[in-house]
């Protein structure tokens, strides 16, 4: 059967890039991007879908004969704390809707994005292993733990092929993240290119796991395309890029912008970050489906600056 992909949350940081990469891979006619609002710049099939409405997901699945869903819609860690009950409701409800539709229409595969936010005080903060204790303190993290368990439940109970990775903070130039604790690591590059001082909401030495967008999207596709026998973890796989602090990123940026200035005004996001891992052990993903990141701090910095300079020169 032809692969027909539905991406829910296609306007977001990962969704935008994943849509383009999957269009190149499977053909534009086989990828349906969807989100709450139409992305006017989107080039391909786009459907407006509110994933809290199960009937709307069913409609699109039937209309296009969807075989796989990538469910990327969620309210992230920092934004989620503003309205905890709404965040829980949206994150969990949309995921359960996707799982139910996938079960009812016998879909081949489903992708679930989990996060390093699933970890809390009970997990070692360095080289956090895949099976560490999960006691998150944000509602976003709680919803992701819940989502991972539902993924495993649908796999065990109904044989649904649900696959998932725990994304670190994602650094990319194609679109802005929204409402996360790791968002500073994108914003900092924009300020550098615009020759502005960057005020960081985390302390200078707060190390967090980060990954470049190309690696994150490649991991997503690699786990989805891996032979089924290789997928041994049915909650979610840790994937690591590199561990970075604001000070380390700033100092790398100074290689290209020696006058770059950063100051620090930690806010509530510092309290979220201090509970998260500093670095991640992704040996299970490496072993089971051959995962390996390609980007280091220098290649991320060099690519971010080059691409953002291009973008700003085009729009200024
Ligand atoms: C966030 O900061 O909330 C996200 C994440 C790590 O899942 N980027």
Automatic annotation (TrEMBL):
Residues 5-240 form the NAD-dependent epimerase/dehydratase domain. It comes from the Bacteria. Belongs to the NAD(P)-dependent epimerase/dehydratase family. This is NAD-dependent epimerase/dehydratase family protein. It comes from Flavivirga algicola.
């Amino acid at each position: 059967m032809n692969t027909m992909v539905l991406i829910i949350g296609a306007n977001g940081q990962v969704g935008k890039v994943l849509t383009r990469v999957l269009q190149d891979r499977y053909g534009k006619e086989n990828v349906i991007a969807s989100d709450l609002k139409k992305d006017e710049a989107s080039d391909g099939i786009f459907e407006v879908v509110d994933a809290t409405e199960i009937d709307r997901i069913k409609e699109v699945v039937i209309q296009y004969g969807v075989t796989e869903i990538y469910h990327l819609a969620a309210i992230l860690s920092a934004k989620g704390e503003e309205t905890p009950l709404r965040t829980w409701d949206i994150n969990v409800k949309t995921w359960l809707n996707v799982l139910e539709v996938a079960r009812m229409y016998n879909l081949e595969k489903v992708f679930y994005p989990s996060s390093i936010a699933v970890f809390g005080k009970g997990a070692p903060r360095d080289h956090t292993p895949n099976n560490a204790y999960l006691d998150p303190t944000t509602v976003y993290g709680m919803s992701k733990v819940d989502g991972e368990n539902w993924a495993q439940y649908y796999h065990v109970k109904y044989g649904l092929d649900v696959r998932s990775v725990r994304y670190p903070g994602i650094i990319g130039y194609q679109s802005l993240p929204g409402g996360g604790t790791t968002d500073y690591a994108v914003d900092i590059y924009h300020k550098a290119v615009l020759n502005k001082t960057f005020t960081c909401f985390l302390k200078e030495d707060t190390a967090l796991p980060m990954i470049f967008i190309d690696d994150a999207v490649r991991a997503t596709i690699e786990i989805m395309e891996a032979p089924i026998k290789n997928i041994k973890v049915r909650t979610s796989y840790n994937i690591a890029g590199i561990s970075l602090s604001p000070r380390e990123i700033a100092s790398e940026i100074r290689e290209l912008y020696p006058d770059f200035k950063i100051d620090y005004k930690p806010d509530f996001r510092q309290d979220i970050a201090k509970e998260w891992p500093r670095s991640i052990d992704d040996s299970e993903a490496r072993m089971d489906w051959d995962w390996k990141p390609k980007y280091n701090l220098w290649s991320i910095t060099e690519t971010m600056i080059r691409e953002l300079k291009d973008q700003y020169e085009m729009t200024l």
